[in-house]
Design brief:
The chain contains 8 helices and 11 strands. By secondary structure, it is of the alpha+beta class. It has 3 domains: 102 residues, Aspartate Aminotransferase, domain 2 (3-Layer(aba) Sandwich); 87 residues, Aspartate Aminotransferase, domain 1; 85 residues, Alpha-Beta Complex (Ornithine Decarboxylase, Chain A, domain 4). It has a 4-stranded mixed sheet. α4 packs across α6 and α5 packs across α6. The relative contact order is 0.10.
């Protein structure tokens, strides 16, 4: 069951959890979002794929760890616990009625490539990732996170193509590291936060690209000997769990106004605000904004945090419900 995904994975998943796509019994069935796991079924040294672990359904983004075009995602369904007709109805609420045939062609082309050559390609990529981890771990102040990630917050296994680097001991933030790499070496790592940067390797990488990454981070470390990370307010996760006081639809479509972000605490949000990573909203329409979230956003944006969906690109104001 394939759908060209229109950048609405999070919205769909919320809708699916709310409405259910289960069998006629109406009971919730195991399902999971494996956005970064399209490649997992094709090599035994990668983490267990959700469907092999017994999930009734999972959603993967082929444009992430596969070789598909952006917006290409796939539903996997097995067994008889998921009502496929209902699942299709849920998806049809969100996907376009005019899908791009190139997305489908890329999904099918990548699937065939993995069936025919996936083990060899991914095996080479994993060897390359091991080399990258060994070399990057020798840079002073940079730690390659590995076994310490296992067993934390229900994690069970680690995809070692995701090379997570802890940089706090250098004195710099992850935001500063990626900005330097982009500006000076034209390397974009994508995921980063106040303490870490993530280099995602794939079957497209080779000795040249990995060598460029190692050389660039080595050069950055020489230049950043006196690096100092901007201060950032880091709330306890409970502080980020805001209280919903209006339905999201009512807040978003109702009367609203824009206020300076410093005046937003105590107001009801009329927009969604999502730092990326991790790509999880800290504010959703209908939630009561509090001081902790505001300080987290203000200090984070000043430090280099990426907030791509704020209606005000500067995030100096927020859209709130009138009254």
């Amino acid at each position: 069951m394939r759908f060209a995904w229109n950048r609405l994975e999070h919205q769909y998943w919320r809708h699916w959890r709310t409405t259910g796509a289960s069998a006629a019994t109406g009971s919730a069935r195991p399902g999971t979002a494996k956005a970064w796991g399209a490649h997992l079924p094709f090599h035994p040294e990668l983490p267990t794929w959700a469907m092999d672990a017994g999930a009734d359904m999972c959603l993967v983004s082929v444009h992430k760890m596969g070789a598909g075009f952006e917006q290409g995602s796939v539903f996997h369904v097995q067994g008889d616990l998921i009502d496929r007709a209902r699942l299709k109805l849920c998806a049809d609420l969100l996907v376009t009625t005019s899908p791009n045939v190139l997305l489908y062609a890329a999904i099918d082309g990548w699937r065939r490539q993995m069936v025919e050559s996936g083990h060899e390609l991914l095996g080479s990529a994993l060897q390359l990732a091991k080399h990258a981890r060994d070399e990057l771990g020798r840079i002073p102040g940079i730690s390659v996170m590995d076994d310490e990630l296992l067993g934390a917050e229900a994690s069970h296994d680690l995809d070692r193509l995701q090379v997570l680097l802890y940089v706090s001991a250098t004195g710099a933030s992850g935001y500063q590291v990626v900005d330097w790499l982009r500006e000076n070496r034209r390397i974009d790592l994508g995921h980063n936060d106040h303490r870490r940067v993530l280099a995602t390797l794939s079957i497209a990488d080779d000795d040249t690209t990995v060598g460029a990454l190692i050389d660039a981070l080595t050069a950055w470390r020489v230049e950043a000997v006196d690096a100092q990370a901007p201060k950032m307010y880091l709330p306890h996760p409970r502080e980020l769990q805001l209280t919903s006081v209006l339905l999201p639809r009512d807040a978003f479509f109702g009367p609203c106004e824009r206020v300076p972000i410093g005046e937003a605490p105590g107001r009801i949000a009329a927009e969604q605000v999502t730092p990326y990573p991790p790509g999880i909203p800290v504010i959703v329409p209908g939630e009561l904004i509090d001081r902790g979230v505001v300080e987290y956003l203000r200090s984070g944006i000043a430090a280099g945090m990426n907030v791509p969906d704020a209606s005000d690109p500067t995030a100096e104001t927020l859209r709130v419900v009138t009254g």
